[in-house]
Amino acid sequence: MPHTRTRNPSPIPEVTWDSGLKEMNETWKGAVACLGVAIFFVMTIGIIYWQVVDQPNKNWILKGSFSGLIWDRRTHSLIIQTLTEDKTFVEIDVGNFPALEVPFVKNLCWLNKTEFCYTWDSIADLKISLESEYSPGTECYSIQWIRLHCQVDLKDCFSMDNISWYGGAGVRAQNWPINNVNIALQPFVVSNLRNNPTGFGSVLERYFLGSSGVALFIAQDIPVHISIDSQKHFCLQTPLSTELVPLQYMVCVGNNIKTVHQEVGSQLSELPRELPNTHILRLPFWKLLANADSGAKVERELRTFFNRLKRHKLGEGVISINEHSTTILSDMDHESFYGRKKSTLRHIRDLPHVKLLNISISLSPYTSVDTRQFQTSLQEGREDYWLSLPSKTDGYLAPLLTKWKGKFSVKLNITNHAAVNWFLDKVSSLQAKLGVEYITLEGGEGNPFTEQALEPPKTLAGDEYISLFAEIAAKIGNSSIITAGTRSNHLPLFVRMSPLQSDWSYSGIKGIIPSILHYSLLGYNFFIPDAVGGSLSSEFVTDEELFIRWLQIATFLPVISFRTPPWVCGDRVLNLTRSFILKHQDSVVPLIIQYAEEWASQGRPVFRPVWWISPDDPVTYTIDDEFLIGDEVLVAPVTERGEVQRDIYLPGSEYQWMDTNNGKVFDGGTLLENYSVPLEEVAVFQRRSS
Predict the structure, then answer these.
(1) Integer angstrom CA distances of residue 100 from 95, 145, 244, 266, 441
(2) 98: number of CA atoms within 13 Å, CB side?
(3) pTM of the predicted model, to two decimals?
(4) Does residue 110 have a pLDDT over 70?
(5) Contacts of 497 (CB under 8 A, 6+ apart)
C-alpha cells in the first residue's frame, strides 16, 4: 500500500526530536563519551600540574604597608620581606611536620585580609594575624600554632643567615651576638649556672632582637623549650605534654635594629620603670671571705677588713658577707655588737669604725631542715609556709625537700601571703639588729618541683618564683640586690651578675662586655658585675695583668666589685685601684645617672652596643669588645693577654671621636688599627659633632 505523505503547512521543517536524539546517540555516543573523558582527564592533569608544578614556590599570604609574609612551599618556611623583596627580615623554618605532602596555600580566613589560617589535618592549626597598629613605624605578625594531637611537636627555627641575634637569656660563656652559642634543647627558664653550667642563667626575657630590624616576643604564659645551634638557627619548641600546648609568638619588623628595639623592645614591661638607690653606684663592693664559726669572729674580721680599707686609702665601700656569716651574725648578741652592754675600752674605741661600716648581708628563701626555725614551723602547723606536696591519703602537707648549699632544705612558699609577711618581718628585724641597708637575696632561681620531675602548681610554673621573689626584694627596699631576673626590669633593684672564671676566655674577662650589653638590652641596667678578676675560683687572683684589665672594664660599670683585695697584688695594682675608683666616682657615675633617667622615661638602655649609633652598619653587629655609655662615651678595653694595642672601630660617619687620654680626634666610621693602649690605660672616646 502506497504511503501518503501529509503536507506540513509550517515554514519550519518538522523535526522528530526523539528519533533524532536517538539517531544522534546511536551515531555519536562513543565519540562524545570519549571526548568527555578526555576533557575531564586533561582538566584534572591541568589542575594537578598547576598545584604541584606550575604554582610558584613562594606565595604572599599577608601584606602590610611596607612588609609582607611569604610562604615558601619548597622549604616549609615563613619569610618576612619588604614588599619590594629587596630585604629579608627573617626566615622561619616550620618544617617539623611529617613530610606527607607539601601543603598548598589555602587561606581559611580569606574574608579577613589581615589574617591567614591553615590546617594540617590531624596535625596542627596555624593562624597568623597582621598587627599593623602595634607600634608606629613597625609591623607585627602574631603567629600561633595549635597542635591537634598530643604526639605532635611544634618547632619553629629562626635562621641566622645574614642576621646577628641578641637577647634571650644569659649563658655561662656569654657571646654578642648569640650566633656563636651552642645550647641543647631545654626549658627556657633561669637556672643556677654554678649547678647547671650549660643552662640559661641570671637574666632572661622572652625577647630576641635581630640585626635585620626584627624583634621576636614569645608568649609569656606558655611553656617553651629553646635550643641554639651555632651559626645556623635557634629554635622554639613545645614540650611534650598530654595537654595541647600551643606555640605562640609575635614577630615585629622595622626600618633597622635600633628602630624596632625602640618601638617595641623598650616595652618589655608595660609597668612604670623605677630607679634603685643610685647612691650605691659610688660605693665599691668588697666581698669578705670570712672563715668564722661565731658572731664575735665575724665581727672581728669585719673590723679588721674595714681598717685595712682605711689604711690603704680605698675610701668608703660596702663590705659584703655571705649567707653563712649573715646567719651567724643574726644569732649573736647584737647589743654587744654595737657596744650597748658594758664594753671594754677597746670596744668603745672601735665603735665609730663599726658604725661607719656599710655591710651587705645575704639571705635566701631556703631554710635548712635542721634549724630551729623549720622545726618550730612544723610544731605550729605552718607547713604551708614552705613549698609542699599534699598527701594523697590523709590530706596533710609535706614540705618538699631540696638541697641548698649542700644541706637538705625547704623553700619559702612565695604564693602564701602569711609566709611572705613572715619572711619580710624576719628581714626587717635583721636590718634593725644589724643596722644594714644593702641586702642580697639569692636563690630565687631553681624550681624544686621540676628538679624532682614533679608538676608544679600553675602559680609557680616556669620562672614565676623568680618574678615573685623580685617583688619581695622591691618591698624590702630600693637597695636590694637579686641574683636572677625575669619580667622584673621595671623594679628598683640591682641584679648581681653570674660569677666568671679568672681567665681571658668568654667564661672570664671576654664575657664581661657581652654580658653588659645583654643585661642592658633587656632592661637590667643596674647590675653588680662579678668581682674584679672573677670569683668562680676559691683562690685570690694572682695574674696582675688580668686584674688590671678587668678593673679597667669595671670602672665604667654601675658598681666596682672586689673579691681579691688589691693590696694582695702589690703597690702598682693598689695605686691603680685607687685611681680607677676615683675615676668611676667622679666621671662615670654622673654619666650613668644621666642616662638612667633616660632609661626610666624612654626605655633606652644605659649601656649600648656600637650599632646603636650606626644601626645600618653591618661592621657594628659583631663588635663584642666595645660599648657605649649613652650616646657620648665609647669604651674599648683590652681583653687579650699580653696586648698593649688593639683595633678600635669608631661608629657614626657624621660624628667625630676624641681620645680622652691624649686629645686626638678621629672621624666616625673609622677603624683604628693597632691603636696603642698601654697596660695602665683604657681607651675611652668622647663623641663630638662634626
Answers:
(1) 11, 19, 22, 42, 53
(2) 9
(3) 0.88
(4) no
(5) 202, 515, 519, 527, 528, 529, 530
d(CA 419, CA 385): 5
Q: Cis omega (within 30 of 0) on the bond before 678?
A: no
Strand segments (E) across 366-411: 366-368, 388-390, 397-399, 402-404, 407-411
Q: Are 52 and 73 in contact (CB under 8 A)?
A: no
Backbone angles phi, psi at 541, to 5 degrees: -75, 130
Report CA-CA distances (Å) from 166 to 181, 204, 385, 634: 11, 12, 39, 20
Q: How many residues does the chain have?
A: 690
Amino acid at 372: R
Q: Across residues 114-130, what is the average pLDDT?
A: 87
**Partners of 115 in beta bridges:** 129
Contact 257, 213 (CB under 8 A): yes
Q: What strands lie across the sheet with 155-159, from one edge to the other? A: 58-63, 67-72, 77-82, 88-93, 155-159, 233-237, 225-229, 183-187
- List of residues 6+ apart from 21 with CB closer than 8 A: none
Give residue 34's identity as a one-letter amino acid code.
C
Number of neighbouring beta carbons within 10 Å of residue 413: 25
Q: What letter does residue 458 receive in the DSSP assignment?
A: G
The three cell numbers locating residue 476: 624590702
Distance CA 281, CA 583 (A): 12
**Confidence band, pLDDT 50/70/90 cuts, at residue 421:** very high
How far is 615 from 609, CA to CA, in rounded Å?
10
Q: Which residue matches cell numbers 619559702? A: 412
Chain-centroid distance of CA 94 in Å reads 23
Taking only the tens place, the pLDDT of each residue in 18-43 is 444 344 455 555 655 566 656 666 56
Contacts of 366 (CB under 8 A, 6+ apart): 402, 404, 405, 409, 410, 411, 412, 443
Of residues 611, 588, 591, the one with CA closest to residue 262: 611
Neighbours of 24 (CB within 10 A): 11
Q: How many percent of the chain have pLDDT more than 70?
A: 85
